[in-house]
Structures are given as structure tokens and as C-alpha cells.
Automatic annotation (TrEMBL):
Keyword Cell membrane: yes
Matching Pfam families: CstA (PF02554)
Identification of the protein by name: Carbon starvation protein CstA
PANTHER family reported in the protein's UniProt record: CARBON STARVATION, INNER MEMBRANE PEPTIDE TRANSPORTER
InterPro entries: CstA, CstA_N
Membrane topology per record: Multi-pass membrane protein
Tagged with keyword NADP: no
Amino acid sequence: MTSFLISLAVLIGGYFIYGKLVERWFGIEPDRKTPAVELEDGVDFVPLPWYKIFLIQFLNIAGLGPIFGAIMGALYGPAAFLWIVFGCIFAGAVHDYFSGMLSIRHQGKSVPEVVGHYLGEPARKFMRGFSVILLILVGVVFMMGPAGLLANLGGEGILANTSFWLGIILCYYFVATVLPVDKIIAKIYPLFGAALLIMAFGVGGMTIISGLPVPEIGADLNHPGGLPIFPMLFTTIACGAISGFHATQSPLMARCTQNETQGRPIFFGAMIAEGVVALIWAAAAMSFFPNGLEGLNAVLSQGGAGLVVKEVSVGLMGTVGGLLAVLGVIACPVTSGDTAFRSVRLIIADAIGIEQSSKANRLKLAIPVFAVGFALTFVDFNIIWRYFAFSNQTLATIVLWASAAYMVSRDKGHWFVSLPAMFMTAVCTTYILMAPEGLSLSAAISYPIGITAAIAAMIAFLVKNKSNAVAGSAA
């Protein structure tokens, strides 16, 4: 398992080395007042200790992404290690750091407002609608999944009724969305975040101790379904490498950060921690089952990623590990779903200018949002949800371009942000051209168009920002 151990070391080293460089290039201002201090309202703007914010941010952005996505990505073999490590360090952590720090620099504003400031009013309007739709979808699916799991735990009567658990989770979501951030989220999320890390370290430790045959990078392995690595791997593993959903969550914690020096451990660090979790689960998934990837694919076909989590956890850590895995599978989506709805409330509030210190104002926004969410639980998401991977990575790409525009506006080098943005533009364009839920075009057509779109986006970015710089100097 040399490749796995080296990947783990590089990922952790990326926080200390590249994270420090990104912090320097961004240009933190330790003496600058943060929104948590300047705009404290006891509801959303609440100063919290950095370690609590880190654990909350980690849990908010994680959910089931770094577990389920990594398990599905493990079907591509150790190529998944490369994407998790390099994607996380050079794209995902940069994306998360900028989405958090730019929110801090703009009074804790939500991602559509920040993007609009740097990419223009059309981008702002698009991001408002795009983000709200994406977050409501996330919140609804993260209600339905845990409700089904709870109903199938072996209870009888009403406890075996999915609708009953759906109602319980919906009520909890509503309360968590409306109450001040320090009443529920700041109290229980750090515990869940720590539990998720402990479970991942347990799986990783037992993978090493048990000497599982983790394949090495360069091994001649192919996806059992014959799917190409590019662009499919780069959308399958999202939360463990780069995810636009994170940009909707970072402003929640930007409103609680007390000093800009805390940005690197909170935003960059939480993404690296998520990458570590993804790396561990990818290694365990591709090496635990007999016949390697074929065995993993068989279990996925039988019961999905949830069954893989159960089999791996019980097999490596015993019955207690299996119980913790099931509880994690239930708790993780719940704790990401409620913050998704909270983000919707704040995005709408920022868009129409309704302050949120008043409980009545919070209810005015929360009630219709949850009414829509509840109605959507009756819709079949099997088709709609296929577009989530593409939408998620598209959102990340837009945030990266906005971050690059910020660096240009500060007369600083932008390549460490614009190059990942260019790469993700190629990924998203190629994916929607090739995917069955897209245009289903051949690789011979999709690859050239995807690469051309990425180059065109970079040229447009450079031309636009050069003209802005000339206009600014003339003024």
C-alpha cells in the first residue's frame, strides 16, 4: 500500500506547505475586523472558537460525500488517489478557502453575492437561482435518505414508517434553520464531526494493520463498467476533491470566524480533512472485497454504497464499527441537509435585503422554503438527481473564476486559481457532452469541445480583466 501511504502524506503536507502559500498569496489582514465581530447579531453572526468552526465546517461540507463518492470513485482503481490528492490540494482546498475568505471580506455575504461582485450582475442572478435550487435538492434528498434508513432499522409499527421519520427530520431541519447558530449547530455538530473523523481513522488504521492489498498507482485496472476516467472520475469524486456545495456552506462559518488568520485551518484545513476521509474510504473499498474492483462493483450493485460502508466497517472494526457506520450514514446527511436549508434562507435574505436578527423575518423565509422542500419529497428524484454531479462541479468552477477575478482586482497573480478553474471548465463541459443524462456524444467529439471551451474561457477571462485593468489605469 505504498501509493496509499504516500498519497496520505502528500495530502497532509499540502495543508502545511501549499495552504501556507495560498494564505500568503491571498493576503490575510489579521487586524481587519471580521463580520462575526463587526456585525454580531446573536443569530447568524456569532463569534465561535476556531476549532468548533473547523469541526462544523468539516461536517457541513462532508455529509456522505467523501464516503459514498470515494467508494464509487474506487471503481477507477488507484487513479482515484491522484484525483483526491491533487484535486483536493490544488483545487478543492483553494476553492473552499476563497469561498470562505471572500465571504469574510464581504460582510459574510452568501456565494451568489460574492460571485456577482466579481463576475457581474448576470452571474449574480444566475447564481442566486442556481444555488437555491441545488441546495433545496440537497436538503430534500438528505431528508429522504436518512428517513428510509431509520424506517429499515428493524422497528415495528410507526417506527417502520418512512413518512413518520421524514416528518421528524423535517421538524428538526426547520428548528435548526431558524434558531441561532450557537443553539444547536455549534453544540452538537463538533461532536458529529469528531465522530466522522474517528470512524475514518478507525477504517484507515485497520486497513493498514490488516494489510489489505491496496493496489498501487500504475496498476493495470479498468472500471468494471468501462467508464472513462476523464471526465467521469472527476465528477464521481466531488466532495473528496472539489465540490461547489462547499461554497454555499463556507459563508455560514465565515459569519462566525473571529480573525482572518483562522481561515486556513477552518476552510483549507476542513477540505484537506475531507480529502483524508475520502482517501481512506477509497483505499478500503478497492481492497476489502474478494476479486478487487469486480467484488466492489458486485456489492454496489446489490445494495449501493451504504452496504459497502456496512460491510467494510463490520469487517474491519466488528459489530461496534458497523453500528457506528450506520449511525454515521444517518447523521451525516441530516447535518448537511439542515445547513443546506439554512444556506437557502441566508441566500434569499441577502438577495432581497431582509435582515435576519428578527425571528419573524426568519420565519417569513423558512416557511415557504420548507413548504417547497416538503412538496418535493413526493417527486421521483431518480432522473433529476443525475444532474447533481454536473451542477455541483459547475458551481465550483464559477466560484474559482470569481476567485481568480478577485486576485486580478487586487493586482495579484491569479494562476493558482484560474488554472484549476480552467481545468474544471473542461471537466464540466466534457461531462455534460458525454454523460447519458447529457448529450451522450462520443469521446472523439466531447474531448475536443471540452478542451476548446476551457481554453476559450481562459482567453475570455484574460481579455476581460486586461480591459478592466486598462480602464482602471486610465481613470
